[in-house]
Amino acid sequence: MNKQQIVDNISVKTGLSKSDVDKVINGVIEEVTEALREKDRVQFVGFGTFETRERSSRKGRNPQTGEEIDIPASTVPAFRAGNKLKEAVK
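Above: the chain sequence. Below: its structure as tokens.
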């Protein structure tokens, strides 16, 4: 399912216009992104938690040449599913 399909489904279920639903979804995405940039956690109780995790530097291999390369440390986004979401998917 892509974003447009989600917008369409929510629009039908709520009676809101597709334009309004799109604005809300974009707003949520922007807020989550901004919070993660600030290293904050975003929690939707029952659904899950968005957070950042630190990856340490490590060695890797170039798949074309086999040459060993250094992969620098980085911060990556992560999602941890909540209990209600886990139960719904079972």
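The longest strand covers residues 48-55.
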